[in-house]
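Reviewer comment 2.1 asked that we show a complete input and output for one of the modelled complexes. We chose the zinc ion case, as it is the one discussed in the main text.
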Amino acid sequence: MGLRVERIPTWKDNYTYLLVCDETGDAAVVDAPEVEPVARRVEKTGARVSQILSTHHHPDHSMANPELAKRYSAPVLGHASDRERLPGFTRGLEEGDTVAVGNQVAHVLHIPAHTRGHIAYVFDDALAVFSGDTMFAAGCGRLFEGTPAMMFAAFAKLGALPDATRVFCGHEYTESNLVFAAHVEPENLAVRRKLDRVRKMREHAAADWHDATETEMTVPSTLAEERATNPFLRAPDVAELGRRRARKDDFRG
Ligand code: ZN
Ligand code: FE
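Response of the prediction step:
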């Protein structure tokens, strides 16, 4: 019983998620840039897709929304403010709204910074958060439409979730994020250990991300791991988060 999360490698290094309630078979797709890999997984699992959930409007997370919505006769959910720019938009969500996938319920966090309409879906019972391009494993998204203060606030919301919460983010960026984290905090042993572990996982990564196997996927992380390794969650204040984000923008491992 619970929420099954299928990780589907899409686009260049994106994660699309297929969420299935094992009690009812109801399913939702989170952040899909491509139809085919998703449709194949849906067929393989026999899931009944009833919703398309978007974390934000960027094409590498939403391009396939209209076609998937048509194929499964499913609504597309995203932040209310993205009505005009989220592909396939049908239902607007605000902070505190809930979304049910079968018997599993998520509450919505509005976490603007990467984009103004960025949201996260938090499944409290299943201990899972879909954090899009806001919190990555050991990293954070670029500040395209927000300030360091907004990202700090977003990380404070995500950082309030329980330790065991699994963090399902939008991209497989973990290795390069950890290289940067080790640069920011050279003394942090949790970062060193995780970088070693992630390097081993990524050593034999498929040349084409679409062929990635589960052994090379470093996502999900957990909130406990993020507290120990994420230089943006570990930033003590807005100014330091801003400095780290600016350094990361020009960082070449
Ligand atoms: Zn994005
Ligand atoms: Fe992205």
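Helices lie at 36-45, 59-62, 65-72, 148-159, 174-184, 189-202, 223-229, 238-249. We note this here for comparison with the apo prediction described in Section 3.2.
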